[in-house]
Task: inverse folding
């Protein structure tokens, strides 16, 4: 019997990965103000919090007139989501005004709420403007992606962080400082990371905002661990997002480079508070983020 050579499984293309994320965030309408969020392909265990936020804001956006876009959202995580189940999103139309509209979303699995989200939408208008300047950091082209760093230092990393970094996803991350969250050295509670979708995203402002909401939960929480020399490799630590707030200041384009500037002004009582500012590579501030997360040391 002749041996049959098996070809190695090909990694999905960039466009396929972005298409998968697009399909994940394109919630299915079941009835008026009732939507279903699909499961992530290959998802195992607990659902990533950014996915639930992104699907919730997409659900809310589908109940809004096209001349209004989301400018802020506030979400509370209550229970971990299960990757084995879809998520049902119920939208409540709390307010529809001439300039603003307000929506509440309840995300549910097995009849229980896993997330509550409230979002505000505004019709575009002009007004006074100013913004904090973007810090000077190396351009993304000069930095290695998180995946490239993981491959380069693969022998030095344990299974936990390698599992977190791989397989590659639709959002590419290029940290300014390589692996600060894996170090046992005490650092200033500040971090920066470039990110973008790895392939073009369809021209739908709601989708670009949802993808940014998804990405905004990726690297923020670890900032509050930096001044303590604590990481998930050498320490037994339990982390989880507790709440997440996001303000959209300008239109966002997720398939061009964005800089995520993060800091943590406070931690205590097994919680860490983190802030983020998201800039275009030209220096325009397009979004701000705030999040409190669980950072519990287990003995």
Result:
């Amino acid at each position: 019997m002749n041996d049959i050579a098996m070809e190695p499984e090909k990694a999905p293309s960039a466009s396929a990965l972005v298409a998968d994320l697009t399909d994940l965030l394109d919630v299915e309408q079941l009835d008026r103000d009732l939507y279903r969020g699909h499961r992530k392909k290959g998802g195992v265990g607990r659902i990533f919090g950014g996915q639930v936020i992104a699907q919730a804001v997409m659900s809310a956006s589908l109940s809004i007139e096209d001349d209004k876009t989301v400018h802020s959202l506030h979400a509370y995580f209550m229970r971990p989501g299960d990757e084995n189940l879809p998520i049902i999103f119920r939208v409540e139309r709390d307010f529809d005004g001439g300039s603003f509209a307000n929506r509440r979303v309840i995300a549910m699995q097995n009849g229980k709420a896993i997330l509550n989200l409230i979002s505000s939408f505004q019709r575009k208008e002009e007004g006074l403007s100013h913004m904090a300047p973007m810090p000077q950091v190396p351009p993304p082209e000069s930095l290695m992606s998180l995946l490239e760093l993981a491959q380069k230092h693969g022998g030095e990393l344990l299974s936990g962080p390698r599992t977190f970094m791989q397989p590659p996803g639709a959002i590419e991350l290029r940290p300014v400082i390589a692996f600060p969250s894996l170090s046992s050295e005490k650092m200033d509670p500040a971090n920066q990371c470039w990110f973008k979708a790895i392939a073009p995203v369809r021209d739908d402002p709601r989708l670009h905002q949802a993808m940014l909401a998804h990405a905004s939960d990726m690297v923020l929480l670890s900032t509050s661990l930096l001044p303590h020399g604590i990481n998930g490799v050498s320490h037994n630590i339990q982390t989880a997002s507790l709440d997440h707030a996001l303000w959209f200041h300008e239109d966002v384009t997720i398939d061009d480079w964005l800089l995520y500037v993060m800091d943590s002004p406070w931690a205590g009582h097994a919680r860490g508070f983190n802030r983020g500012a998201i800039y275009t590579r030209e220096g325009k501030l397009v979004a701000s983020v705030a999040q409190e997360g669980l950072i519990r040391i287990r003995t």
About this structure: The chain has five helices and twelve strands. The mean pLDDT is 90.
